[in-house]
Design brief:
Two copies of one chain form a homodimer.
Chain A: E1 12-16, E2 23-27, E3 61-64, E4 67-68, E5 81-85, E6 100-102, E7 106-110, E8 115-120, H1 132-149, E9 157-164, E10 176-182, H2 187-203, H3 207-218, E11 222-225, E12 229-232, E13 243-247, H4 259-279, E14 285-290, E15 305-310, H5 317-322, E16 325-327, H6 331-340
Antiparallel strand pairs in A: 1-2, 1-7, 3-4, 3-5, 5-8, 6-7, 8-10, 9-10, 9-14, 11-12, 12-13, 13-15, 14-15
Helix pairs in contact in A: 1-4, 4-6
Chain lengths: 341, 341
């Protein structure tokens, strides 16, 4: 305890829970003052900060009607999708992690990483209301940014996610996704990677491939299908109407997605979101990607997929305390209902 | 795949996720029909089902002004705290787990267990508004039910939790807690137990004891303290204003709590909930117990504690997808704010 400790002030830090080994991100420059939490669900008023890109940081990706604009000076007037560094980033680029202790007991390090926002231009429409080619353009942006960041220092995982609606955690209504890079992987995701790896080594087949084939035959949990993708409600869904969208082919690395696959994924994503909107009356939802880490190791055993989670139920004390989720709609029943929409 | 599979219909089942090994509970008899999710946040109207115990299952515990009523025939008119089996249980008592597979691929078993509701009589008051002796009486009920259930078959863990407010997952406004027993422990909690055990074996001291001593000296994350308990915002909080209430003494098994400890715990719980209500303008919250499992094994290394989580922020796509939580208020700042309330 008497050891000398480096005093470093970095605006975002990663702190480790001593018991679980889990990390949390303390993002001070996104902070509200404590008493601002008194009205946490109040809406900000005024102009939308995503409609005029001049209010944002300089874009790192811009496209117009499906065409990526190379080395632009000014953002073209006809931009349709743009990616900007988040003005209030949770993770911040830096050249050192500065792993250190506090009180000889706790562990922390700088929360180093990139935090970007993917903006689709139309303020009024959510993804499911955009044409498939525009959804594909959003996926183009995901891929382009992934490829640009994956080999950077301290980038071992890239999380791409989308929050929609007041109960989703979204603070701005204008349709946008986010990309966050992290140096570390959470124990839960490591556990899922290990599970996938063991299955692959034992069975010489990917578990997702096996499961997808089984589900396509059984049919009861399928929500949507096209040439290259299948959307289904997983057998052990953690939320009612949870839907995953997975390529039929074994694809470990999202960033290697082809043009044809992007079009089919856009179609599947649009279809699933449309069914959720229609069937559940426009609920809040989150969707996120799970893909192989970009940590230089071989993850050929993994199979990337998107998870769509409608926020129609709160995780309560039991679920948070035990991590055993209670669902009240069988995935078979959920899929049957969504298929009909 | 061609194996014969037992067809068993049990109203609640545990289903395993093949990748993570996590289990979920599918509770069919709590089910809404899918289209009822269209208005998930609408309130049920009519008489409160917890005000008149005659509408409930036969109580398994009744007390009146702190006195437990033994072998009552009718519920006494002056009851103050009662425990009843949940009318819509997520887990159901049964004499067999019937572990089985589906499609030669998926694993499931009967979701066997007890699911009870702890009701404090006063409809209008939440726990923090009740006198300390009444909060203690609720804790008496927790302990009595724990002791009654812990040696029953298929009871390896007992989860006690409380949901308050519209964003907490509570479906009934009348103040109540719940008790659920499970046959299995989730990977996350097993991981926490392992972490605590390793620390204990290596350091000949419990990690919670060590941490509590450190925090009491450092002071900055302390929210409340009395003779036997301390409430603090953990160094790696997963939510802003997360507060844990932990005994100062090393106590692995919650069910062994003494009368004096119950009074001090009641005081600490009431104080923390009051501060959260006052400081954050009566938010929804959950609180839950983590204690040593009742699986016949030795868990002397563990240290029970309660976690109070105000629901002032949603877990969004990033947090759900990566399990890396982003907090925007430092635990030091949160504790300082709560101390002042």
């Amino acid at each position: 305890m008497a050891k000398k400790e480096k005093k470093i002030k970095f605006p975002s830090e990663l702190r480790m829970d001593l018991i679980s080994g889990d990390w949390v991100i303390l993002a001070r420059n996104r902070a509200k003052k404590p008493d601002e939490f008194k009205n946490p669900r109040s809406k900000k008023k005024g102009r939308c900060p995503f409609c005029d890109l001049k209010e944002q940081n300089i874009p790192v990706f811009v496209s117009a009607n499906g065409k990526t604009i190379p080395r632009y000076k000014d953002v073209p007037k006809n931009w349709t999708v743009a990616v900007v560094p988040n003005k209030y980033p949770a993770l911040i680029p830096h050249f050192r992690l500065d792993e250190r202790t506090e009180g000889g007991l706790y562990k922390k390090m700088n929360a180093v990483g990139f935090h970007e926002v993917v903006i689709a231009r139309d303020h009024k429409k959510q993804l499911s209301q955009l044409p498939t080619k525009r959804v594909k353009e959003v996926i183009d942006a995901y891929q382009a940014r992934y490829l640009d960041m994956k080999d950077k220092r301290f980038v071992n995982y890239i999380s791409i996610f989308h929050n929609h609606g007041p109960n989703s955690g979204a603070s701005i209504a204008h349709t946008h996704s986010q990309i966050i890079t992290t140096v570390l992987l959470d124990a839960d995701f490591k556990n899922a990677l290990d599970g996938a790896k063991k299955y692959y080594q034992k069975n010489k087949e990917c578990l997702y491939c096996h499961m997808t084939k089984y589900e396509l035959k059984a049919k009861e949990r399928i929500v949507f299908e096209n040439k290259r993708f299948v959307a289904l409600c997983p057998y052990a869904s953690k939320m009612p109407f949870q839907t995953i969208i997975t390529p039929k082919k074994h694809l470990p690395y999202f960033e290697e997605i082809t043009e044809e696959e992007k079009t089919d994924l856009a179609e599947a994503l649009k279809a699933v979101l449309h069914k959720i909107n229609k069937g559940l009356r426009n609920p809040s939802y989150n969707f996120y990607l799970h893909t192989a880490p970009c940590d230089e190791k071989n993850h050929d055993y993994y199979h990337w997929h998107w998870t769509v989670l409608p926020k129609i139920q709160e995780w309560a004390g039991f679920e948070i305390g035990t991590k055993l989720e209670i669902i009240t709609v069988a995935p078979e029943q959920a899929a049957q209902y969504l298929r009909k929409q």
